[in-house]
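Researcher: Here's my situation. A collaborator sent me these components and asked whether they could plausibly form a single complex. I don't have experimental data yet, so a predicted model of the whole assembly would be a useful starting point for our discussion.
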Amino acid sequence: MDMKQTPAEYQNYVNEKSPNSPILKNCFNAFWVGGLICCIGQLIYFYCTYKGLDETSSSTVVSISLVGLSAFLTAINIFNRIGKFAGAGSLIPITGFANSIVSPAMEYKSEGYVMGVGAKMFTVAGPVLVYGISASVILGLIMCIFV
Amino acid sequence: MKKLGLNTLKLDNPANILNTASIVGPKESNGPLAEYFDTCINDEFWGEKTWEKAESKFIKEACNTVLAKAGVSAKDIDYLFAGDLLNQCISSSFGLRESNIPFFGVFGACSTFVEGLILGSVFIDSTACNNILCATSSHFCSAEKQFRFPLELGNQRTPTSQWTVTGAGAAVLNKMGDGPFITHVTPRCYY
């Protein structure tokens, strides 16, 4: 290897040699696992309406169930394995959001319940909450004024 | 000691690396270099309650091992240069405070160990010091926690993503011996 490479040449060399992510395989796994999670949600929804709940309550039950299930799987160290396999398939549905709050809570438990769990619980989900809620406030104001 | 060129120091009294020791965690124990490590530990916690405490134990035991191998007692060490990846170098400062050796905390991420060797060899070159201990540690779990994401987070890694070593290494430098010697040191900015 030539020792007088420029940083750009070196970067090209590294890119050439390093293996790429298996994008097709990842997409396929994300597709079917994500679809499966949505199907489970839909099944819960159908069950609720079958038992006589109205549409809004059924949707709420679906969210609660999936969040609870994902939190439980995170706690018993299974969700991160699903996540490694499925990527965005398990990250994008509400299951990923639950995982992003439960995982720091578990990780920082060793630093205590106030400064650890309490303070660090939202390190991953925090930006989503801040900008998600801010965006909804702005949209709400626009709706209020113009519609 | 003399400065050569832009960044190199030539040492008049080359520091002798008297002995070295290393302790590694499970992933390293199963790797191709396993036979070269002094101790392989198959438990990421090493019996401790947190990863940070485990990392402290790694560096403490690495230092104890190198002192035993070199046949030098802790009170004969003049100064200690050590560091790790955690805030305020807690794993080295907490792990090594019982050794009661004057401690310089070094932070250079990947370069911490060499940084310690550079500073230590310059101290040896001053001829005022007889023995210098250099050590460093890192822990995959504590580094992930500090710099990246919680381990329980279900995210994917690229095939080339780095794994921080779980382990610790230590070396004793002294004035005379059979080598290997540190004759020149070059801290260099690449760009």
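Model: Some features of this prediction you could bring to your collaborator: Chain A has a mean pLDDT of 92. Chain A is about 80% helix and 0% strand.
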